[in-house]
Amino acid sequence: MAGFDKVVTSYAEALAGLTDNMTVIAGGFGLCGIPEGLIAEIKRMGTRGLTVVSNNAGVDGFGLGLLLEDRQINKMIASYVGENALFEKQLLSGELEVELTPQGTLAEKMRAGGAGIPAFFTATGYGTPVGEGKEVRQFNGRNYILEESITGDFAIVKGWKADRFGNVIYRHTARNFNPLAATAGKITVVEVEEIVEPGELDPAQIHTPGIYVNRVIQGSFEKRIEQRTVRG
After folding, report:
1. Which pLDDT score is estimated for 2?
2. Sheet of 142-148, strands arranged across
3. Would you say 36 and 158 are in contact if contact means Cβ atoms under 8 Å apart?
4. 3-state DSSP assignment of residue 31
5. In the structure, how many helices (H) and strands (E) does the chain have?
6. Of 46, 154, 182, 213, which shows the fewest CB atoms inside 10 Å?
7. Please, what is the average pLDDT of the chain?
């Protein structure tokens, strides 16, 4: 990797510098658009004490659920966690600290963090446990609570295509939280299905400009379905 060329050829190189007790922001929604290979590499590395920010925590045995198996995550900041029995067990036993955040608020926390905005007011959560202990202000007769933005030491992201300069395109619903996560990491690593040469991507179709991306790696993906329902 040199100059504008952000391609790395190994997962070890992709996550070089990730150490214990860091904060990792992960893209994905359920099992859709998750950075499978990067998560597997964190498991292989054995990095511990992590704070992980993601919409949810995968499922048992896949996605971020892999990191729960070895208790590599100390704190989870998420909005939906209902598909993971091990997550529930660790939460109830006190092994895992959990900060549940409304989904739109979580998205805005990432976006604001990436934009350099330290905090913002939102009406979501006012008058509920979400708003307890937070500053309240009134705008146009409505109460709002102050939410702090989120940034991470690393952001791990799944894209569809990227060029060597780190410009990224996401595909359909796999876009989800990934563009937001990509802006909010001090080091942003994107794994993609295909890497192309600069100039091959339509500039009007690029979702994440390369300025936000530090490393790009081409991976292979299982793309597991979270819940499969078929007719009897």
Report:
1. 53
2. 119-122, 142-148, 136-139
3. yes
4. coil
5. 6, 11
6. 46
7. 95
The dihedrals phi and psi of 148, each to the nearest 5 degrees, come to -85, 145
d(CA 113, CA 185): 9
How many Cβ atoms sit within 10 Å of the Cβ of residue 212? 20
* Strand pairing report for 185-196 and 215-218: parallel
Q: What residue ranges of the chain have pLDDT lower than 70?
A: 1-3
Distances (CA, A) of 149 to 88, 101, 119: 26, 12, 5
The model's pLDDT over 87-133, given as tens digits with 9 standing for 90+, comes to: 999 999 999 999 999 999 999 999 999 999 999 999 999 999 999 99
Q: Is 3.30.450.20 the CATH number for 11-116+149-218?
A: no
Amino acid at 222: E
Q: For residue 24, which of 174, 190, 156 has the smallest C-alpha distance?
A: 156
Token pair of 60 as six digits = 């048992």
